Amino acid sequence: MRVNFRNMTVQVIIGIILGIIVGLVSPKFGAELNILAQWFIKLIKMLVPPIIFLTVVTGIGGMGDMKKVGRIGGKALIYFEIVSTIALAIGLVVVNLIQPGHGIDTSHAKASEVSQFVTQAKDSETGFIGFISNIIPESIAGAFAQGDLLPILFFAVLFGTAAASLGQKAKPVIRFFEDLTEIFFKIVGMVMKISPIAAFGAMAYTVGQFGASSLINLGELMGSVYLTMLIFILLVIGGIAKAFGFNILKFIAYIKEELLLVLGTSSSESAMPSLMKKLENYGCSKSVVGLVVPTGYSFNLDGTAIYLSMASIFIAQAYNVHLSITHQITLLLILMLTSKGAAGVTGSGFITLAATLSAVPVIPVAGIALLIGVDRFMSESRAITNIIGNAVATVVVAKMENEFGEAENSAPAAVEPTRIIPS
Fold it and tell me: Which domains does the chain have, with CATH numbers?
């Protein structure tokens, strides 16, 4: 079988393989190549705020039915809360059964390495009140300049709702935004052509910086996290997909380019624009995609929820801290809040974990130093689980709202990034 080197999937895989080789052969040089991934992520993040704003506004404004907006948003939020809570619970169960933290040498954990994360966690507003306060932007321009997803989403919902309530008067604005959206997606297509280079740089950095031996001590935790996320994707998300009439494995194959991009860059944001376009091609209406996907990036972080619950218990096990059922239930309730705002916090993994542990004082916050060396590897699985969860959620909500075109979903495993290939 001849390999098509023009295919983006093939190019990304080649980039990942070459990155691993460079990281092993020349670790110092490989570590310096992280700049390639950073440039790519900056390009994508440059495009995410306007795309989020435009897609949400056109999605809501194009509905012209306020009851429909509320119904879709309400169903999506209920779905997010139920599924992410299940993710948290599964993470707690698996980490308690496998107990990867027992026997860890905590002498290698340096409190000085995590001082910046602890300080930022204390300075940041946490909890429900702080989370709500951070949603409301001090200025619209500031939210766009800083790329804060939640404030932009909040403003876009207000703008779209106002446009929908005006009906025909707002139609010219909505049509202009739809044309503008197409231009931004065209720019995304141009940027995506360099994604194999970004994947190469990211993998060269990871292997060069940490080396293969960095995984030995924490390999059991990584294995536990991967296993838990696999169970969650196949059983929980897969069960939901089956209940709504589509196969999770074929669906994953359909979004494989986005997943490989996330694998290479460890950033789910990098795949958001192309994922939204692909979900429309899969059969979901533009209005559902425009509302559910951006909202899910803040409220439906299944992979992050699993990681936070397992990392918290892992640290407790490493320091021989016994957590009672009451402690773990309290931890679960706290994580239900902190995990929702994880994407909106700078350096989300460590800062959110530090903020969570600060609310459960029996677990030493300094223990997150144990995770620094391998967080890069686990962040990839978090991002992949997050994006699969959000993609499935969008299809589910679309089907619940009868906003799904069955005729367009004939061959999901053989779909190109921008169009459906008939079976």
Answer: 8-414 (1.10.3860.10)
Residue 316 corresponds to which tokens in the numbers above? Answer: 């407790």
Pick from 380, 306, 264: nearest CA to 16 = 264
Please classify residue 241 by burial: count the beta carbons closer than 10 Å to its beta carbon, then call 0-12 exposed, 13-18 middle and 19+ buried. Answer: buried
Q: Name 392's Cβ contacts closer than 8 Å, sequence gap at least 6.
A: 237, 240, 241, 248, 251
Q: Is 182 exposed, middle or buried (0-12, 13-18, 19+ CB in 10 A)?
A: exposed
221-242 average pLDDT score: 93
Kindly compute the dihedral angle of the four CA atoms of residues 7, 205, 222, 117, in this order, to the nearest 10 degrees.
Answer: -130
CB–CB of 27/209 below 8 Å? Answer: yes
- Banded pLDDT at 411 (limits 50, 70, 90): very low
Supply the DSSP symbol for 419.
B
β-bridge partners, 284: 404
Query: pLDDT, tens digit, for every residue of 374-392?
Result: 666 677 788 899 999 999 9
How far apart CA 93 and CA 90 sit, in angstroms, is: 5
Q: Which of 72, 74, 66 is nearest to 166 (CA)?
A: 66
